[in-house]
Design goal:
Blueprint lengths: L9 H10 L6 H14 L4 H12 L7 H19 L16 H22 L2 H6 L2 H14 L9 H25 L15
Helix pairs in contact: 2-4, 2-5, 2-8, 3-4, 5-7, 5-8, 7-8
Amino acid sequence: MSLIDERQEFSDIADVFLLHGSMQSPAFLDGRLCGLLALRDISASAWLEEVCLSLGVEQPADTRSGERLLGWRKQTLEALSASDLNYTPLLPDELFSLAEQAQGLKDWAQGFNEVIDDVVDDETRKRWSQPLCEALDDMPAIAGIDADIDDSPENENDLFALTEHVRMTAMLLYTEQHPGQPQVEQADAPTH
């Protein structure tokens, strides 16, 4: 089976970045990916080009790396468009310190905001619902959080709430930009 069809975890993508000599976190690019897919889609080739540009290479070092990067796009698109609304940002998990997780969330929000700021005009914003506008208004604050936090239950709860906020914002943006996708409400069958 191709790596494109496997579940891509944060550490999988971070390993691909390391293979290409990059110490950057995949979280920033995941925020960009989510924003691009939610707003207008990004083709597999355009996504691969964007990642390679970010990594400072012309193309992935090997087939496996390319498959992982394409699998990352596929996984994100499938999760955003799925009716079970199970999208989750690609962020450092519990194997990382709370500070590293907070930095990942901050990076993700910066990437997401960058796409929104670059792509969305005032006319588009005016068509969005009030809940989406309010959720997006919170994103710059999330992009500016202090990531230098201690491992504590309170900080863990706060980080979970912020992560859930960006997750819901991403799905709300996707559903408003793609009416009927995912189809989360099923109409009752007509009775005769």
